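This section describes the prediction task in plain terms. A model, or a person checking by hand, is given the sequence of a single protein chain and must write out its three-dimensional structure as a string of tokens. No templates, partner chains or ligands are provided. The sample shown here is typical of the held-out split.
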Amino acid sequence: MSGRGGAPGRRIVTDLFTALALVLVIEGLFLALFPHRLRQIVVMMEQMSPEALRLSGLAAATLGVLLVWLLRG
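The expected answer:
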């Protein structure tokens, strides 16, 4: 299955699965390379308020959408 050309709907699905695969690669690398630091980050997140976590998540999602928009434009 080629990621280029073809029906637009098929390309969207291919791009989505490619993005999800890259998320798994990046998360896996962080877990493999920095397991102790990730545990520290989880402990820090447990101490944050739900509002702070929500704001952080929205900021990260907004940054991600902006980057995709700039790159794929």
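For orientation: The two ends are 24 Å apart (CA to CA).
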